Amino acid sequence: MTLAEQMAAWLAARPSPSWRQPLLMGIVNVTPDSFSDGGQFFTPEAALKQAHALLAEGADLLDVGAESTRPGFTPVDAEEEWRRLEPVLTPLAREGAVLSVDTTKASVARKALVAGVQMVNDVWGLQADPDMASVVASAGAVVAIMHNREVVDASVDLWDDWRRFFDRSLKLADRAGIARETILLDPGVGFGKTVMQNLWAVQNMRRLEAYYGLPVLLGVSRKSMFGRLLGREVHDRLPATLAVNLYGATQGACMVRVHDVQAHRDMLDMTALLAVNGMVKGDVE
């Protein structure tokens, strides 16, 4: 089943009040400087090993990126970005893995889609590169449009800012011919927001989904807000990540983007078992 077909099946269940389990996106950073695991999977061999491990743990798809998006990141040109991505994406696509490419560059996205990637995850919501929307449309790919801001401003009304940003992105998508059923919105937790704005973004995901009639992707894995709120270092943020992603799933997240796939698979599967109506009664174990 393609990613577009998986999304269609998820969307078909939207009128139901019962539990809708989100798709689980595993993160593979082919970078030396990502905030959480920079350098761990920088070589193609290490990245492929991690990708296979995440798939074995239950990832529905993998999001592969080769340029860090953390604050103060070192920019990477398109040629270098593709040099890092190609030896990872090509073999995974040949193996039949469902893949997303995390990039803001249309030229990189085009090559990835030709190689067999099914989704583009753009942290600037089609607005950084004027050719991105047409590249996505030509391939019929799924696209995640994420909200972002250049400057953190506690006085900003985030709902108004969301609408201005997403209205512009969706106009770009519509003009290029991107099908609505292939679009996800990402509230942009951790990107150009205060800690309280990040929390508000998670709390208002359902409002965002309802306003645009589009599914939502949530990415909070190991983010700095957990350090600021709880005093936890990067690799001690799994419990907090699980809590927020479970909350996000109950608020209608279609997809959650995570580093720790097995823990999330177990959490989501157990929640699904508990939420299923008509389970056999009388079981005690």
Question: Could you characterize the architecture of this molecule?
Answer:
The protein is an alpha/beta fold. The chain has a single domain, classed as Dihydropteroate synthase-like (TIM Barrel), CATH 3.20.20.20. Helix content is 45%, strand content 13%. It has helices at 3-12, 44-57, 78-94, 106-114, 132-139, 158-176, 195-203, 205-212, 224-230, 238-250, 261-275; strands at 23-29, 61-65, 99-102, 119-122, 142-146, 183-186, 216-218, 253-258. It has an eight-stranded parallel beta sheet with strand order 6-5-4-3-2-1-8-7, with helices on both faces. Helix 2 packs across helix 3, helix 5 (132-139) packs across helix 6 (158-176) and helix 10 (238-250) runs parallel beside helix 11 (261-275). It is globular, with a radius of gyration of 18 Å. The chain starts with a helix and ends in a 10-residue tail after the last helix. Mean pLDDT is 91; it is low at 278-285.
Short précis:
With 285 residues, the chain is an alpha/beta fold.
Topology at a glance:
Elements: H1 3-12, E1 23-29, H2 44-57, E2 61-65, H3 78-94, E3 99-102, H4 106-114, E4 119-122, H5 132-139, E5 142-146, H6 158-176, E6 183-186, H7 195-203, H8 205-212, E7 216-218, H9 224-230, H10 238-250, E8 253-258, H11 261-275
Parallel strand pairs: 1-2, 1-8, 2-3, 3-4, 4-5, 5-6, 7-8
